[in-house]
Amino acid sequence: MRDYDEVTAFLGEWGPFQRLIFFLLSASIIPNGFTGLSSVFLIATPEHRCRVPDAANLSSAWRNHTVPLRLRDGREVPHSCRRYRLATIANFSALGLEPGRDVDLGQLEQESCLDGWEFSQDVYLSTIVTEWNLVCEDDWKAPLTISLFFVGVLLGSFISGQLSDRFGRKNVLFVTMGMQTGFSFLQIFSKNFEMFVVLFVLVGMGQISNYVAAFVLGMAIRLESVHILCIWLHGAATVCLLHPRLADAAGGADDAGGAMRGTLVVHP
């Protein structure tokens, strides 16, 4: 029996057929770079501090001294996870006492951020961190998101080959493209952190399965598959360039939660 190279020799090394298939496979790989790097923007943690309710009866002086300072990199910055006990400083404010002059701030009792946080929007309008307050006691959840994404990549690596052998690589390629796109779109409507990470695991499974199927198909038709890797890197670089503008346009500059969802719209 003749081997595969002999059977396909009539196709040539780099003819119109190879160019067409290379273009189509490359187009299917570009979104993978978007998905892989989107987490850099999605789980970023902006500067934050404890929120003080607008209804709190505080003088302007006390409102500017509700958060204790701490040393970071040799300079004093507002604490991210603690504030002075609100009932105490409200009482001092009502008595007309001034912070620092009449009251030693270092001796005041502190409490956690019972009313949530205020996040800086200097760099990011919104991320999953600002959407679900993944800071302080819950700050471990943000890096867990990336870990679970790569759990999906690992699972997809194990099963994509078996599925391709059983159902054909072309079928697996199209199904996993739809899987990656569909679950990425559903992430936009995530109601909580748990829903988001479950969908992210499925996106990871679809991403690697799509890539492996395209890579093997490229090799099977006598393409230099290193080109496919280059196209993935092109997609990764493109998301870095386009993200800020496309996320703002998709999410809306005035919508705090929209920018995070806009990032999800950027990558299919």
UniProtKB/TrEMBL annotation:
GO terms for molecular function: transmembrane transporter activity. It holds the Pfam family MFS_1. It is a multi-pass membrane protein. Its main location: membrane. It is found in: Membrane. Residues 88-268 form the Major facilitator superfamily (MFS) profile domain. Keywords: Membrane, Transmembrane, Transmembrane helix. The keyword Membrane applies. InterPro entries: MFS, MFS_dom, MFS_trans_sf, Sugar_transporter_CS. The keyword Transmembrane applies. The chain crosses the membrane at residues 20-44, 140-159, 195-217. One of its GO terms (cellular component) is membrane. PANTHER family: SOLUTE CARRIER FAMILY 22 MEMBER. This is Solute carrier family 22 member 5. It comes from Homo sapiens.
